[in-house]
Specification:
The complex is a heterodimer of chains A (about 325) and B (about 140). By secondary structure, chain A is mainly beta. Chain A folds into 3 domains: about 10-165, Thiol Ester Dehydrase, Chain A; about 190-235, no CATH class; about 240-315, Beta Barrel (OB fold (Dihydrolipoamide Acetyltransferase, E2P)). Chain A is about 15% helix and about 35% strand. In chain A, strands 1, 2, 3, 4, 5 and 6 form a 6-stranded antiparallel β-sheet that branches. Chain A has a 5-stranded mixed β-barrel with strand order 10-11-12-14-13. Chain A has a 3-stranded antiparallel β-sheet with strand order 8-7-9, with helices on one face. In chain A, strand 4 and strand 5 (about 135-150) form a beta hairpin. Chain A is elongated, with a radius of gyration of 25 Å. Chain B has helices spanning about 15-25, 35-40, 50-65, and strands spanning about 5-15, 70-80, 90-100, 100-110, 115-125. A 5-stranded antiparallel β-sheet of chain B has the order 1-3-4-5-2, with helices on one face. The chains are: A mainly beta (about 325), B alpha+beta (about 140). At the A-B interface, helix 2 and strand 2 of A face helix 1, helix 2, helix 3 and strand 2 of B. Strand 2 of chain A pairs antiparallel with strand 2 of chain B, so a sheet runs across the interface.
């Protein structure tokens, strides 16, 4: 939702958030799950129909174009992928760019890989593009550059570009297929600065940060204090009482997983900080500024629970 | 070879088996490369070839045409029209630069809907066989 269609300044501020990741590591200390080996070389050559004799026999080398294959996580997942890269992908996921397609691959081969070589690799996030619209959908190109080593020696470089995109409307299914799953709400971007908040939500505790230098409360969670710049903080648990400070009713544009019209409220907690949330228990057209509301936790799906505020129970 | 020389084309039938075998041989388990239903949910009409397979086919094409002594130095590719099952991709190559034993070859892989891949391959040729003990001639 952050990158709204055509929202020039919103798109620019979203891009600025993405660009923070440029230059950060994508993989640190990655290690190939298997050493270079004849079996994977043979499977590759069979699939590609490649009968080059250089890839078989006692002096075999691996096909150079296998470079990336030695670094793949496979079904058991990627090792060594950085928090920064996961956060970047999560930020794009949360903006609806949930699909991924590879678009470019540029490899340079510095020395052949031979069976027995141990593969290690490091990668950096080289660039994140502005928002682009393609035939597949709208999204951002993310370019990474990987250095691959064999037994500690430089063996190749691998620049890779993916498009993280929000799929354009899927074509109508050709046969009656199983009912499409209801789109899920965007996932929160959980990072080291707000992890504690989401840990609290899981325990049904709404936690507010408190500066331990000047005692100012702050919300949403931030690394430092806006009042005195101190980086030291602890938390206080919100009592759950709040009032509607302001609200809007969303009619358009519709986002997957949301049924317009619905109210989006800014509530002021009894502790004094304000929070953007949904109001439950009251029709969207009955929400009013000053209305008392009370914290509850809404189970959105099997993976996500959100703090929301219920109104109208004493009316 | 000289600048402007072309390599014989190579036709590759894009079968479902090739797409799936290439994805698994490259350890790429993204569902769009093996599950047609999930590929459609993501806006694609069917499964499609992954970039690692395309990369492997481009490398194979160049060494098939130049002989097993040819050594790939760089392969840089960009994908366009996807390779879906039932299509055929025809790879063609043109020498765009030659420097000593090193050639730069522009490769295009065209399928029924457009250019699946465009790219540049830098390849080192084996030293020419000694011709009766004479000094090596220019390539």
């Amino acid at each position: 939702m952050t990158a709204g269609d055509g929202g020039g300044s919103e798109a620019a501020s979203f891009l600025a958030r993405l660009r923070v990741f440029e230059g950060l590591p994508a993989v640190t200390g990655g290690r190939g799950k298997d050493p270079v080996n004849a079996a994977m070389i043979r499977h590759w050559c069979e699939a590609m129909g490649d009968t080059n004799p250089a890839y078989t026999g006692p002096d075999a080398v691996a096909p150079p174009t296998m470079l990336q294959a030695w670094t793949m996580g496979g079904l058991s997942g990627h090792g060594g992928r950085s928090d920064a890269y996961d956060e970047l992908l999560a930020l794009l996921d949360a903006a609806g760019c949930t699909s991924v397609v590879a678009t470019d691959c540029e490899q340079e081969y510095l020395r052949p890989l031979r069976p027995g070589d141990t593969v290690t690799f490091d990668a950096v996030i080289e660039s994140v593009s502005p928002r682009k619209t393609t035939r597949l959908g709208t999204g951002h190109f993310v370019t990474t550059r990987m250095d691959v080593l064999a037994d500690g020696e430089p063996a190749g470089t691998h620049r890779f570009r993916i498009l993280k995109y929000a799929p354009a409307a899927a074509p109508a299914p050709t046969a009656p297929a199983r009912a499409p799953a209801r789109p899920r709400r965007p996932r929160p971007v959980v990072n080291r600065d707000n992890q504690g908040f989401w840990d609290g939500v899981r325990e049904h505790r709404l936690l507010i940060q408190r500066c331990t230098s000047c005692t100012a409360l702050r919300f949403p969670w931030l690394p430092g204090c806006n009042a005195c710049a101190s980086l030291e903080w602890d938390t206080v648990q919100a009592c759950g009482e709040a009032t509607v400070f302001s609200y809007v009713v969303m009619h358009h544009p519709p986002f997957p997983a949301f049924d317009p019209p619905y109210a989006v409220a800014l509530v002021e907690l009894a502790e004094g900080v304000r929070m953007t949330t949904n109001i439950t228990g009251v029709p969207h057209d009955r929400v009013r500024i000053g209305m008392p509301v009370r914290l509850e936790f809404l189970r959105v799906d099997e993976d996500l629970e959100l703090p929301v505020f219920r109104g109208g129970s004493e009316a | 070879m000289n600048i402007g020389d072309t390599l014989d084309p190579l036709e590759i039938p894009i079968t479902r088996t090739l797409i799936v075998a290439g994805a698994i041989a490259s350890r790429d388990y993204q569902d769009v490369h093996h599950d047609a239903h999930l590929a459609r949910e993501k806006g694609s009409p069917d499964i499609f070839m992954n970039i690692l397979t395309t990369n492997g086919l481009v490398g194979r094409y160049v060494t098939d045409r130049l002989g097993p002594g040819a050594v790939l130095r760089k392969v840089a590719i960009r994908l366009g029209a996807p390779n879906h099952p039932g299509d055929t991709m025809t790879l063609t190559g043109t020498v765009t630069a030659a420097d000593g034993d090193t050639l730069e070859i522009r490769v295009v892989g065209a399928n029924g809907i457009g250019h699946h891949v465009t790219g540049t391959v830098t390849v080192a040729l084996p030293a020419p066989p000694p011709a009766g003990g004479a000094s090596g001639g220019a390539a």
